[in-house]
Design goal:
With 144 residues, the chain is an all-alpha fold. It has six helices and two strands. It is elongated.
Length: 144
């Protein structure tokens, strides 16, 4: 696994931990630690669930699946063959859902959840690293 992919794996694990914390607070019915009341407003809103499942559980499943891609990449041939498109697809899903959730946050809930923005940062960093890795691979191929 290349260094950039290791950083991406670490980010997906961080996203899973963040999502797990938010899901845990929902399951045990305690408020998330938050510097403002935005987290509580977002968690209590009708938008905290997507198709009946808490958004943080979707996030946990997303980040765990994304982590799994990196962990099995070198051991399963089909994943290795389609790794770049699979990561690109995961990023498109993550960016799309992130945009949807930010619109909901600003337009409908009118509150800012700092934990949710932590996930935004993770998805943005994953995307930057993906394109950086893509560019470095293209440069390596040109020199060979």
């Amino acid at each position: 696994m290349k260094n950039i992919e290791k950083y991406m794996l670490l980010l997906t694990i961080a996203g899973a931990l963040l999502s797990f914390y938010l899901y845990y607070t929902d399951v045990v019915n305690i408020p998330a630690i938050c510097p403002n009341d935005g987290c509580a407003k977002v968690a209590a809103s009708e938008y905290s669930r997507f198709f009946g499942i808490h958004v943080s559980l979707w996030g946990l499943l997303y980040y765990l699946g994304f982590s799994l891609l990196f962990l099995i990449k070198d051991s399963i041939a089909i994943v290795q063959k389609y790794f770049k498109p699979l990561v690109a697809l995961a990023l498109i899903v993550g960016i799309g859902f992130t945009i949807y959730l930010r619109v909901v946050e600003f337009v409908f809930i009118k509150a800012i959840c700092v934990w949710c923005w932590g996930s935004v940062v993770i998805v943005v960093l994953l995307t930057i690293l993906y394109f950086l890795n893509f560019r470095l691979n293209a440069q390596d191929q040109e020199t060979n």
